[in-house]
Write a structure and sequence with these properties.
single chain, 3% strand, disordered N terminus, two-stranded antiparallel sheet, 56% helix, 2 strands, mainly alpha, 215 residues
Amino acid sequence: MQNPQGTTHQNMHTGSVPPQMNHGGHELFDLHEVLSGAIGTMNSYLLYRQHVKDPELMDILDRQYQFMQDEYNITVECFKTGQDPSKPTGKYMMKQGNDWVYGMKPSQPKKPWQSASEINDEFISSCMLASCKTGASAKTMAACETTNPVVRRVLADSVPNCIEMAYEISIYQNKHHYYQVPQLAQQDMNQLLNAFAPAQGMPQTNNMNMNNINH
């Protein structure tokens, strides 16, 4: 990550902008949404924890919570100072492999609960997955319009971690048939897989236009 120190930022009305104020209005609102969402996710994980029954899901929840907390602190630090945080954004590593089971297993139709006692690992893991997907979307959108280069890079580096966490949970769910993955018929799949071909070289339109201009 490159440090923006030494770079001069100007406000057309007030002059030089100090590092801690090197944020646009849109960025401030986006970061408040991102950081509030991160707090909401961690608070939800804390509430889910007392209801988790599967040790494997508990391990995923605890590892993800610890990583989220560290990443949250890094984001808050660079957001408040406008400069490099004291430590770089880490890289989340899941324990699961990449094996998926395809196909649909018959299951009961889902419906709203009648009692809070019905909370289970399927529901908890689904909520965890939804939170990670929301975090990935929010951070991506915020990074696209963040003016501070350090904050933008921290957000961008965080997005793959949200994706990795979501992938970890979806694989866990797939293994327990909570997240089922249908496949198309082989003939339909082959048709879609072969629907695109590689691009070949540069288009000739510009060269033809230039030749016409020269003549």
